[in-house]
Amino acid sequence: MTAPFSYVVKMAAATIETCHVACCANRTPNVVSWSRRGTIAFGTCNSVALYDPQERKVVALLSGHTNRVNAVQWVHREDYGPERHLVSAGSDHRLIVWEAQNETVLECKGHTGPVCAVDAIYMDNSQILVVSSASDSTVRLWLCTEAECLHTLSFGSGFMMDVSLARLPGSRVPILACGGDDSRVHLYVQSHGQLHKAMCLQGHEDWVRGVEWASIGGELLLASCSQDCLIRVWRLCAKSGTDARPEDDHTVIKMKEDVFEVKEKDVSSVFALSLETVLAGHENWVYGVHWQPPFYRGDELQQPLSLLSASMDKTMILWAPEEGSGVWVEQVRVGEVGGNTLGFYGCQMSVDGSMIVAHAFNGALHLWCKDQDRKGEWRPGVVISGHFNAVQDLSWDPEGEFILSVGADQTTRLFTPWRKHDSQQATWHEISRPQIHGYDMQCLATVGRFQFVSGADEKVLRVFQAPRNFVENFANISGTSKEQLLTSSDSANLPEGASTPALGLSNKAVFQGKILKTCEDEKQFNSVSDQYQESYFHPLNMTEPPPEDHLLQNTLWPEVQKLYGHGFEMFCLASDSARTVVASACKASKAEHASILLWSTSTWRQLQTLPYHTLTVTQMAFSPDAQHLLAVSRDRTWSLWRRHPTTPDNPAEPQFSLYAHTEKDTSIHSRIIWSCDWSPDGKYFVTSSRDKKVVFQHLGSLVPQKPAQTHDNCSSIRATGRKNTSR
């Protein structure tokens, strides 16, 4: 499940302003929709994000679902004006209709399984007709003014992967297309509030993943895509009285037409459907198709005959018929080359056709923009990014210029503000992905200007340091002095970048000589193994945030140290304000594994073991003056450790001893304590627990007693803090 990144906020007096929301699309096919206003709506975790690609920021988050959002669709108006309504569906079995002006919410309940696809059109009197498909093997038709389910189609043990609504040509009768796991496209027409089957389209040889209607020149075109790697385009048109029953003419070669009849207010109309073309170009499952929306050029409405498709082969293709022959051909192909990620789940296109976007299996949005200077050329665009699974921890840079975060998506990401030359407002973007791991990430602590320690679901701590290429690009994007950053980072000894071996978890440093050697070896292969170099790093000169493929391959940080000592998976980390000591703790069900380990950041040697807790230490925090270490645990207690003054005998290595603690029978908290922190002046610390209590404690109110017992040179002193000081 994806999780939006925590807000970066500015505080002034009594106001809080949201500066940035870092998030990505959920890993479902129908979760992105582009409006005529230019706003991209996509599901992220349990919310719907409204993203402005021009401003490059999330303008709103719509929260209402209680589980993952699987499908999002703008309700397009008949007059092709800006949309006023948005429909979303999720794994909570519900549909929600959002209204733009007053943000009213209308819920539709009835499905007994997660809803995977949704579409909607306006009916008479501005009523919204919504169709939804769910994993309960049903397709439901809703009239959303009263949240009423008009009709339910049951498909037994089958599933409909996508649905699309339109009106029959020259009629007000809705027609529904459903693509299913039976390799067929099912067509239904509405009559008297009920859905009646019109026909079934065969031709695909695997699951039909996407369907979409487009109205062009008084006719309807239906695009369907499948796991057979093919796209089929069908043409539906109204038949006149003379054409409805044509006589067989064996001298004319034409596509076979399937005819069906529709009755509307005692008037019968005949419609014919034929196969227009079959598009073959993708090399893997095709998950999504999308027609370019109609738009006004002057006072004239134009509907471009342009179809966009997205596939698991990591490409998007723009299809259009040739002007002379009318044969559908590939106009543009964009995507990624190489890497170890899966492909695209879906695609969307802006109204003017100048931008296209795809969302990938790892949640990332991939944006391409038409190059105005080079006709027919497309270039990657800057777009929002974020974790596609739960964010577990984050840490600010000591100078406050960027944020590092780790998540259960097994990545560490770096976000910083970027200000374009022609813009006064800065927008936050991901500019580096220092660590792409094989285990879920759990904790993080910065220990220098460009250095951090991270822990994952493994027993090892890993230390990373920024390479030279990142420092240079960070200076370009943030506007900081490059010379100043390189001077403070000891640039002479910095590697150029980092890469990960094919079967390894450690980022290996890549130096300038290695890059030159790799470039020379690419010109001539001496053996088969030379064709598959372990170093995939290529130095970049970036003036804007990089696209997803560069983030995956060229922004890694080299691993400089591994720290061993814990017996189970890492759980939390903390570093002091002087960046000289790092404290770490792992998962523990016994006291012998619940100890806190202290590490020196200068030698990366283990300094001390601090035993007290009996279960997992959930969070630690050093006081602002670095003289105290606070820890909270699953055992419902907290412990406070005090730093010994330095002596001439041992001036460099700090030592801590237990200064105060609580026990289960004296603790105010009655459940697991999840978090802790200090006030800026260091006089108070705060703990929060699952018992719904937040407790403030004054440091001066703690009255230490004489040592009761000793643990590895660490005194155990019981606190007799007065409860009347807690708030």
UniProtKB/TrEMBL annotation:
Keywords per UniProt: Cytoplasm, Nucleus, Repeat, tRNA processing, WD repeat
GO cellular component annotations of the record: cytoplasm; elongator holoenzyme complex; nucleus
Composition skew (Polar residues), residue ranges: 707-718
GO biological process, any: tRNA wobble uridine modification
Top-level taxonomic group: Eukaryota
WD repeats: 62-108, 201-236, 384-415, 610-641
Cross-referenced InterPro entries: Elp2 (IPR037289), WD40/YVTN_repeat-like_dom_sf (IPR015943), WD40_repeat_CS (IPR019775), WD40_repeat_dom_sf (IPR036322), WD40_rpt (IPR001680)
Pathway membership, UniProt: tRNA modification; 5-methoxycarbonylmethyl-2-thiouridine-tRNA biosynthesis
Cellular localization per UniProt: Cytoplasm; Nucleus
Residue segments, region Disordered: 706-727
PANTHER family according to UniProt: ELONGATOR COMPLEX PROTEIN 2
Family named by the database record: Belongs to the WD repeat ELP2 family.
Name assigned to this protein: Elongator complex protein 2
